[in-house]
Write the structure tokens for this entry.
Amino acid sequence: MTLPPIVSGGYPVVGHIFEMLRDRAGLFKRGYAEHGDLFAIKLGPQYVLVVTGSEHNRLMYTQTDKTLNMQEGYTFLEEAVGKVLFTASKDDYYNQRPVLQEVFKRERMVGYIQAMNIEVQRWLDSLGESGEMDLSEEMLHLTQYVAGRALIGPNFREELGEGFWDLYTMISKSLDPVLPPTLPLPKFKRRDQAREKIHAVLRRLIDQRRDHPDQYDDLISTLLKTPLKDGTFMPDETIVAMFMGLIFAGHETTAGQAGWLIALLLQHPDYLDAVKAEIQAQVAYGHEIDASVLSQLKHIYWAIDETTRLHPSADTQIRTLEAPMTVGSYDVPAGWRMMVSGSTSHFLPDTFQQPERFDPYRFSPERGEGKDPFAIVGFGGGIHKCTGMNFAKNEMAIITSLLFQQFDVELLSEEVHTVTGNGANRPSAVRVRYQRKPLTALTDADTIREAADAGCPHIRQHLATHPE
Ligand code: HEM
């Protein structure tokens, strides 16, 4: 039996735990340099096979729910979210799947895109004429508002209540993939208190929707009326867990990637010029960016894919072997874990030309790099591939389009690097200086007059707050 080779630098007992938490990209890159596309690390007593490249990534994603168990890797989320999706048992997950598909079906994206437009514009309107801000922080708030409006509806601020996101942040900060989540630590006690309060809010929203089903068409009402695979309906506890699960899956991941996207565009002015030209040609000021406009914004979507490649919010995912497996020329015992690695897979020169370069054109149809569905792991793959991927990509495209349409933005941070935490990766501070463009630069005088006369609320508001 040939076991995979172990990467250098591990300590007795703890193995590579601390390096994993501090700099897993460095650890994985060293493992790849030492041993190639299959190597092992040790996290305390736990052995983990780290795999690189499409072929091995494919094996991990397609063996999930067969020889590979997904749920064990997410037990650290269970106390925070409840038992749902990736924390539920395999049988429960497949029972819940039709409901997940209902939430993300194509027709619902229209409403989600409207919610994104409204909240992004609201954020931009709040910025004043000029100033400085940290986009890394701003994105955390903006993506909360988008999620709130998309999932709960226009009254989400009142319905969720003022303290909701602070409670959510308290839970999110308690996440710890290393310590047992039931230890009597202050951060876990705060998590449990916050979770109780959030559950009380969500249970009230469930009751309201159950009592007045015709008044609501939002996530909770969808969860209430969509049958599970076995024909029964989700109990309230699972509805609460589903809501929390979607927020946990989608919030910090999208915020981190949106922050990186804007930072990368500002660091590459030539490409940003191409993005701005496309926005100018396709996005009419004061009009919603709908799905047909989004489909014209090719440069932004290529930049989004390049951001996912270079700085994935979710650079790794983990599984547990339920039976021994042969991977390449190695025998991997049951009980070992397996991880994909964006920091090595996304930089393979055979797959990506000059992989260290920011070069979104690599995703253009002429070049067609990264077409293999398992070359990039930032949204996962196979049956569990991110259900919210289009939601996240559209949100990032709308944020970028409206920001660069209405503001001149200059990057102040000299250096931006990835911060690896207990949850999703995010960029360090992305400090920018911004200046609002005059309305006359956004659209012509006749259109402004016509739109104001026709009652366009956006232009009316702009004229009221920024008379020129
Ligand atoms: C840039 C933003 C996002 C990134 C990088 C991301 C990343 C991922 C990844 C890597 C997975 C697979 C996990 C695994 O295989 O272990 C996943 C699954 C999932 N994501 Fe996302 N995600 C993002 C945004 C969202 C959003 C906005 C939502 C919901 C509104 C969402 C909902 C989900 C759900 C429900 C799953 C589980 C799918 C399943 O198990 O069938 N994600 N995401």
